[in-house]
Amino acid sequence: MWKKPEKPISIHPSQVVIGLYVWLDLGWDDHPFLYNRFKVSDEKQIATIQSMPLDGKLFYYREKSSAQPGPLVLTPEASISETVAVVPDPALAKEIAEHNKKKHDRLRQQKDSAARADRAWEQAARISREAMLGMAHSPKQAGEKLLDLSQKTANLITEGQEVLLHLLGDKEGEGPQFHALNVMTLAMLLGKSAGLNESQLAELALGTLAHDIGKAKVPVHLLKAKTRAKHEEAFYRQHGAYGLEMARISGAFGPVALSIIADHHEFIDGSGWPTGKTNPGPAARIVALVNRYDRLCSPESPERDALMPAEAMARLFRVETAKFDQRLLSLLIKLLGVYPPGTLVRLNDESLGLVVSPGKESLRPTILVYSPEFNKRDAPTINLAQVPEIKIEEALRPSTIPPDVLNWLNPRQRLSYFFSTEKAG
Prior knowledge:
Distance between the termini: 45 Å
Mean pLDDT: 85
Helix content: 40-55%
Strand content: 5-15%
CATH topology: Hypothetical protein af1432
Low-confidence stretches: 79-85, 168-173
Structural class: alpha+beta
Number of helices: 13
CATH class: Mainly Alpha
Number of domains: 1
CATH superfamily: Hypothetical protein af1432
């Protein structure tokens, strides 16, 4: 179990040695390091700390350190209660300034990209909600909205623009558009990885956005029920047929999109429904997989326990693997990484973090670092691909983390889990 650091102990900069887990009680803008709490790993970090004005603002944590503070070294003019900053040599000062600029540039780029993606998400959520509500009484108009949104999304994915997932959100106030958009986003990313072109991605997006529209004809209490009687389950399983009828009336859906609505609960081992077919089409196979993943993370019934992303991925790979196309399952694991967005992790410098975006390398995602001195939305994130000295030591279960720390990290809060795709070559 990860332990919350004990009460920090004040030290003088001259006492800093490799292996100390330190806390700089400064604003994030006031130092060149990635975050305020870290384990000192090299002489350059020591020199940087000793070059800063840290009077009363430098602390260390005994239990998290692998070394003891060094001897106190004071200049003849200084008393123990004073901290005298060492003036760095010009080369070190220049390097510190450059490092600080890179840190801030990186943060600005991340925030700008996430803001663009968040605006696109909010717009897509609004359009898809309007279309879902309108499908029953204005199917043609609603179909046109979904068709337009799917084509624009396919273009974004093809061009390598940023996209978001809102996995693991609080259940209160969620509408069906969140699940539809999550599944669409994952399906599009997976489809791109599988080699689909823009036209195929647009069909995939359209069918995915509408895969559950038939649930509008299913009573809410059946949708939210943890268990259903046999006749209730049979009624529930008609939502694919209801959705097909509505989609056909709209006139916006081609054969591939219609197959997704019909077959998104079919599995290749024949255990799915409504017909138990073993050969659903490629698009339906993609949607069946990502639909299952999102539902494991965010169950439809509030009475069902949600799995953490890493647990959901493990279940798909170890328990339910026979249900899915193995190539697609491998691509999904590669896409989301060993530590999918929403995973709580411990880093090798003893920091805690929450994975908010997968990286090009499955072991090096982007991490939101536990920094209680910040509001969560303003806390630093670290792209581990850009920081080779930091790595993930282990994934953590929420039950192993102190309540106040978990409350800050809270992976079940409505968060924007961020994906940036590469432009197709």
